[in-house]
Write a structure and sequence with these properties.
The protein contains 4 helices and 14 strands. By secondary structure, the protein is mainly β. It has a single domain, classed as SOS response associated peptidase-like (hypothetical protein yedk fold), CATH 3.90.1680. It is globular. 33% of the residues are buried.
């Protein structure tokens, strides 16, 4: 987690960072559903020239420098080395993530993301997986914390920017949905998002943001079709008779 996310293409045209309206969705086509397992390009927000926020294109998969070429990349994927997510608790201690966490932080705006809830089946030992769509209760988009770094294919000399979403321990509300691993994206408030991409941010401040629970941005969620990944409308609600209502976001 988080491996699936998407956009309301009618609503998300600009992203507001540091009192600036940044045009968004022009560099990479936005869709209702993006899968991390397709290793797609995404449009991130990061500090650009004169430390002003700008949008940029990045490959959704954080590729470490020691992977030398596309063949090694394919083999490493089988071992889970290149990663779609970066664990907040290990961000500043991992040799894979630390340098990017210190120097190359970014944001990923999204309209919604998807996660599964495991529920017990009456009279059986197995569980059923119910997918949910999660979004902001009040705003048009959420801001995920991310890290990025360039990677060069040493066979072709092609260099691309690669990216991972920072994930953290699920808050009490989100743990109702992702009730097995209990993880969630690190969702930032507007002020924290401004700080996150600041090049001047000190390590103590980075640690503070990484350890702050995602409790300031009200979320809402609803169950969706089990085949949402192939559904024409992936966010369309679906009724399941055996679900209990989620507690209200606190």
């Amino acid at each position: 987690m988080c491996y699936y996310l998407g956009y309301d293409v009618k609503k998300i045209k600009h992203v507001r960072i540091r009192e600036q309206q940044i045009e968004y969705g022009k560099k990479v086509p936005l869709r209702a559903l993006h899968s991390g397992f397709e290793y797609e390009l995404v449009e991130i927000i990061r500090a650009g020239s004169h430390n002003q926020p700008e949008s940029a294109v990045a490959h959704w998969e954080f590729i470490p420098f020691w992977i030398k070429n596309a063949e090694e990349l394919m083999e490493s994927r089988k071992k889970g080395i290149p990663t779609l997510n970066a664990t907040a608790e290990k961000l500043l201690t991992s040799k894979l993530f630390k340098h990017a966490a210190m120097h190359r932080r970014c944001l990923l705006p999204v309209s919604w993301f998807f996660e599964w809830q495991h529920i017990s089946i009456a009279g059986e030992k197995k569980t059923e997986k119910i997918p949910y769509c999660i979004t902001a209760e009040q705003d048009d988009y959420l801001l995920f914390a991310g890290i990025w770094q360039p990677w060069t294919d040493q066979q072709t000399s092609e260099t691309i920017d690669t990216f991972a979403i920072v994930t953290t321990e699920a808050n009490e509300w989100m743990a109702q949905i992702h009730n097995t691993k209990k993880r969630m994206p690190l969702i930032l408030s507007q002020s924290m998002a401004d700080d996150w991409i600041s090049p001047e941010l000190k390590e103590t401040d980075i640690r503070s943001i990484l350890s702050t629970p995602c409790n300031d941005i009200p979320l809402k969620a609803w169950p969706i079709h089990k085949n949402f990944r192939t559904h024409t409308h992936p966010t369309e609600p679906e009724h399941y008779s055996n679900l209990t209502a989620l507690k209200k976001f606190a």
